[in-house]
Predict the structure of GOLD domain-containing protein.
Amino acid sequence: MFLLRSQKLWTVVMILVMSSRVTHSLHFDLHSGRTKCIAEDIKSNSMTVGKYSVDNPHEGHDLPQSHKISVKVTSSSGNAYHHADQVASGQFAFSAVEAGDYMACFSAVDHKPEVTLSIDFEWRTGVQSKSWATVAKKSQVETMEFDVKSLLDTVNSIHEEMFYLREREEEMQDLNRSTNTKMAWLSLLSLFVCIGVAAMQYVHLKTFFEKKKVI
């Protein structure tokens, strides 16, 4: 059992290490008059940055008005953290106050005939959002010190993520226990209802047959 838990723990750690070094870079198409949303699960007090741009179908010329987009980033409770209208590109950066799913929604202007927009979107959260290269350039630190700082920041991010996952697991366990308790009470109530209905049917049938002098 201990070996199995250790293997699971190392699996989680390796996944977190890999995810902490990967940047969420997306390229997708958006039709005019449509909206497409992308969700990212962010824990509280985490820094997140995003950058987006619309590919110009005619290089060397200004981006046509039909290829402008509106972008809105909101939390799971509906609070807006970024809003831009009729833009070709932009970026956002904020520290998440609340944990949960954050939505980045892209809307294209309605245009006839319909056009298809190609959008590049990069979203980084936690340790991914920190530009260590800039820090190293500004402070002129040695390469080894830079690597140590980057590794330390990654380890701290993994440590915080593990606590966050543990809290989420405890919430799910509480929800499961609460659901099981409610189901048990519901089953017990259903049993009493069935017994009551059966008793009423028995009394009714007995009275009926006594009146008919069958019994």
Summary: Residues 1-22, 135-141 have pLDDT under 50 and may be disordered. Strands lie at 24-31, 35-42, 47-54, 69-74, 80-87, 89-95, 100-108, 116-125. The CA atoms of residues 93 and 196 lie 62 Å apart. The helical segments are 2-20, 132-139, 143-211.
